[in-house]
Automatic annotation (TrEMBL):
This is DUF5641 domain-containing protein. InterPro entries: DUF5641. It comes from Aromia moschata. It comes from the Eukaryota. The lineage of its organism: Eukaryota, Metazoa, Ecdysozoa, Arthropoda, Hexapoda. Residues 76-165 form the DUF5641 domain.
Amino acid sequence: MYRLKSQRPLQRTFKKLTPFLDKLGVLRVGGRLSNSYFSFSQRHPCLLPSKHRLVVIIIDHTHKVFLHPGAQTLHSFTRMHQDFWRRWHREYLHTLLQRSKWLDSSVPIEIGTLILLKDELSPPQTWHIGRVECVHPGRDNVTRMVTVRTARGNLKRPVSKVCPLPSN
């Protein structure tokens, strides 16, 4: 405001806003909207410094109304979410995939079993869930492939690429 009052040069980023002081000495934005049919306050909004008390109050109020926890908290939640899925993938998922095919016969996947479609190219939280619609046994009468119904349609997958979910 001091630079405007004393007609000194403005910073380039600030100059782009074509600021001016109105009759009451309020710093406002100029620009191309000056010939529009909007009201004066809509054509020329007030400019406040980022650390101004009113700006802090408005931002704080908006965060509380919309339950916005802030960037640091969101970063913590995202990291916690990723850590959970990394541990789940490393510590639990392999127990669902264990197949002791040479030692003893495993429980075959049956029609109606709820499964996860394993995809090595995407994180586990994006894997699709589905239900077995049809089983396709090999020549030895052991199920090798399954047809799975997902939200995106029916898919045919090898048994090694599906994870049966435990059911009660």
